[in-house]
């Protein structure tokens, strides 16, 4: 069930909290049980999923210009490695989920977060090189400097890397990549790319 | 930026509540008129337009009489390294004048006090928890100072934030009132501000009817404060409607 669209702006009343649930772009004020819009867009009402106990339909505001994505714990990001040190590697986050970020965010992959096994034997320099594109998951908001990223899963790790000869390398195992020009093998924490 | 014929700026004047005092002067024996010929309780026509700055995430331009301001919003982006860690988002405001904003040509400068007042007025209306650890920057620039600069900037900034897609509890509308002798004049121009006895600025979230900031300067009597606040609240709700119209126009224009 979808209702006719009506344009709303932040602060406009969408309905009563007793009749509706607040979805994306809307919020419920507890002091007067009213649902307000928090974004500019179209008011849209979604029927509740048939299985749920809550029979209230959800009201949301869609079709707006949302702000750029912000990394949050649990989100999968694509990042470019900028610096590799003995215990950590820094990476600039380029995409959060399917969306590219508008502003630069810095992330850190710590030695213990590179892979799931033998985490104390990880050599950062044999896992990443500056310029590598990695897929990682955001562990936490980290510290004041950076987000903490982790590649400790099969499908996480280096997805694209250039060899010293300048060609894009081909993954040959979960720790090795090979240059198609020279045949040289370089070590990486390779991601298992699932299509 | 001239107003298009379809969206001519509209003037509005607030209603006092039921308790209206009899006018101190009859209209015909007023010994002075406002420099721009407005009624004492008549606001300047307000013109708003969003999307004035291309490189910003969101922006808005506002023109009330000769007061012209532009506000750009950047982010949410990574907080500066020197900042302490914080779970919620941050708001960073900067208020500055261009070199040619005032009749006296001088150096365009940052205005620390106005920056922090702008911050306080907006902070309560933004859902800071929706962009954890990051910062939203608000840069306000007064192109021409024609009086009531801060309230115009605050209203304009809330439009710019809405344009940037920052989640907000409500828009923020701001109006100021000057006390000149026994008269209260709403939305004072620069000349009136220079000889005012006191001023009051009220910023509120019009649809929630909540005040985010209230500032007094000068000497006020209690009945005057009451009247001035009622004037401001009503003017804010009317200004809020003008702002909403602007947002809706911009949003429907981008749909086409």
TrEMBL record, chain A:
Annotated ranges, domain Exosome complex component N-terminal: 7-45
Pfam families: ECR1_N, EXOSC1
Domain Exosome complex component CSL4 C-terminal: 100-141
UniProt keyword annotation of Cytoplasm present: yes
Chain spans, region Disordered: 47-73
Gene Ontology terms describing biological process: RNA processing
Location (main, coarse): nucleus
GO molecular function, one term: RNA binding
Any single Gene Ontology cellular-component annotation: cytoplasm
Location(s) in or outside the cell: Nucleus, Nucleolus
Superkingdom of the organism of origin: Eukaryota
InterPro entries assigned to the protein according to its UniProt record, in alphabetical order: Csl4, EXOSC1_C, Exosome_cplx_N_dom, NA-bd_OB-fold
Keyword Aminoacyl-tRNA synthetase annotated: no
Keywords, ordered alphabetically: Cytoplasm, Exosome
PANTHER family in UniProt: 3'-5' EXORIBONUCLEASE CSL4-RELATED (PTHR12686), EXOSOME COMPLEX COMPONENT CSL4 (PTHR12686:SF8)
Protein name stated in the entry: S1 motif domain-containing protein
Organism: Gossypium lobatum
Organism classification: Eukaryota, Viridiplantae, Streptophyta, Embryophyta, Tracheophyta
From TrEMBL, chain B:
GO terms for biological process, alphabetical: nuclear mRNA surveillance; poly(A)-dependent snoRNA 3'-end processing; rRNA catabolic process; rRNA processing; U4 snRNA 3'-end processing
Start and end residues of each Exoribonuclease phosphorolytic domain: 42-166, 170-231
Location relative to the cell: Cytoplasm; Nucleus
Gene Ontology cellular-component annotations: cytoplasmic exosome (RNase complex); nuclear exosome (RNase complex); nucleolus
Keyword rRNA processing belongs to the record: yes
Origin superkingdom: Eukaryota
This protein's record includes keyword Transport: no
GO molecular function: RNA binding
Family: Belongs to the RNase PH family.
Protein name: Exosome complex component RRP41-like
The species this protein was found in: Gossypium hirsutum (Upland cotton)
